[in-house]
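Hello Y.,

Per our agreement to keep a running log of every chain we model this quarter, I'm adding this entry. I've kept the format consistent with earlier entries: sequence first, then predicted structure.
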Amino acid sequence: MDELEVEFVLDPQLENDSIFLGEMPLCRLLLINDKQFPWFVLVPRRAETYEMYHLSLEDRAQMMVESCDLSAALADGFNASKMNVAALGNVVKQLHVHHIVRYESDMAWPGPVWGRQSMVPYSPSEIAEIRVKVTALLEANLSFAAMV
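Predicted structure for the entry above:
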């Protein structure tokens, strides 16, 4: 690595709030540790990247492919009423894109999921179930390497 290059490091807040599920060609896939919502985050493995326009044109295209494929897989696999996909970054500066499965019956519907209630962490068995389900959904359509 060139001495001027900076290595990708996951933001500490994302690290604290999420569970590492695996890697796609560009992005790290995380599960937000709140079982009230199936809530996933894609983080491009690029150092010091804060906005979409910081990505190369090739990486932008790959990010869109991964985001759309993830959204479609989650919508179908979790029977979503709606997928909420957003890159806000007001608290965490590092570029990350939320993919939240929404249901008309969820406690925050139709409003946003953040800031309304405390997070409820997954149990180890629930995490294992999510890993199996998401890996099955993604391995069929994406280059996805699940992490155990």
